[in-house]
TrEMBL record:
CDD domains: NTP-PPase_MazG_Cterm, NTP-PPase_MazG_Nterm. Coiled coil: none annotated. Transmembrane segments: none annotated. It comes from the Bacteria. GO terms for molecular function: nucleoside triphosphate diphosphatase activity. Its EC number is 3.6.1.9. Keywords: Hydrolase. NCBIfam families: mazG, PRK09562.1. This is Nucleoside triphosphate pyrophosphohydrolase.
Length: 265
């Protein structure tokens, strides 16, 4: 623990030095919460990527990059007299203790994981009420990836009964939204087309929820499959001394099909 304390203090001091108005790094000094937020999201995804690839040797570095984002935000807040790193650590510690009364309180630990999830949601509902978040959808973070936020919004609505009871009804809605997208394709209004496309994506997320599929994970899998197969196309063309831009779509389609067959063999 002493090493962790010392290294955390060292990181906080380094960040303060980088932000020093007189002697710090010009780039770091220019940043604010809004400009750093995209990096925070990016670093969280890189942590997830390392875990997905089981790149355990890379994980400490990726977690360090993510920790830097917390320290960066805390330093900017310290400079403005809002809060500091200790407040951040205290807030999450207090929250964990409050949300685990069966560990840190007098509640029984003898409960299922499902019951713990229900208790957790009840505690969070009380926290939202204390913050005057009265609406069912209040508190669902705007900065979440869009598919993830769609699932969270739908889950919140489902808790109060606003949900299709059967998957078939979701599939019917997908067909309806698809028809509306096709109709909008002939429109001269790009905003309307984007709106209909968004509606279809939202219902697809709902289908994933009903099928108990994580849409972000499913799309990551599809991305990985596309990458593998396209790289197979490039490798096959390279063996012929060519690049994709020097081939035809028909040739690349045939190589794509060959890659599919090879994966299933």
């Amino acid at each position: 623990m002493s090493d962790a304390t010392a290294e955390t203090r060292r990181l906080i001091d380094i960040m303060a030095a980088l932000r020093d108005p007189q002697t710090g790094c010009p780039w770091d000094i220019e940043q604010d919460f809004a400009s750093i937020a995209p990096y925070t999201i990016e670093e969280a995804h890189e942590v997830a990527d390392a875990i997905t690839r089981q790149a355990w040797d890379e994980l400490p570095g990726e977690l360090g990059d993510l920790l830097l984002q917390v320290v960066f935000h805390a330093q900017m807040a310290t400079e403005q007299g809002m809060f500091d790193f200790a407040d951040v650590a205290r807030a999450i510690s207090d929250k964990l203790i409050a949300r685990h009364p069966h560990i840190f309180g007098d509640e029984s630990r003898d409960k299922s994981a499902e019951q713990q999830v229900r208790d957790w949601e009840a505690i969070k509902a009380k926290e939202r009420a204390a913050k005057a978040e009265r609406g069912t959808l209040d508190g669902v973070a705007l900065g979440l990836p869009a598919l993830t936020r769609a699932i969270k919004l739908q889950n919140r609505a489902a808790r109060v009964g606003f949900d299709w009871p059967a998957t078939e009804q979701v599939l019917h809605k997908i067909r309806e939204e698809t028809a509306e997208l096709v109709a909008a394709k002939g429109s001269a209004d790009p905003a309307h087309l984007a709106e209909e496309f968004g509606d279809l994506l939202f219902v697809m997320a709902n289908l994933a929820r009903h099928l108990k599929i994580d849409p972000e994970e499913a799309l990551r899998g599809a991305n990985a499959k596309f990458t593998r197969r396209f790289q197979s196309i490039e490798a096959a063309l390279a063996a012929q001394g060519r690049r994709p831009e020097e081939s035809t779509l028909e040739e690349m389609d045939a190589l794509w099909d060959a890659a599919k067959v090879a994966e299933k063999a």
